[in-house]
Amino acid sequence: MLRDKKRILEIDRQHLWHPYTQMKDYESRDPLVIARARGLKLYTLDGHELYDTISSWWCNLHGHLHPALNQALCEQLEYLEHVNFSGFTHPYAVEVVERLRRFLPAELTRFFFSDNGSTAVEVALKMAFQYWQNRGETGRTRFLALQEAYHGDTLGAVSVGGVDLFFRLYRPLTFETFRAPAPYCYRCPENPSPDFTRDAEHIQCALRCLKELERILEEHAEEICAVIVEPRLLAAGGMIVYPAEYLRGLRALCDRFGVFLIFDEVATGFGRTGTMFALESAGVIPDILCLSKGLTAGYLPLALTVTTEEIYQAFYADYLEGKTFYHGHTFTANPLACAVAIANLKIFEKERPLEKGREVRAYFHRRLLELFADCPYVGDIRYLGYVGAIELVRDRGSRKSFPPEKRVGFQIYMASLEEGLVLRPLGDVIYWFLPLCVTREDLDEILSRSLRVIERVVKEYL
Ligand SMILES: Cc1ncc(COP(=O)(O)O)c(C=O)c1O
Question: Which position among 242, 293, 383, 431 bears the catalytic label?
Answer without folding.
Answer: 293
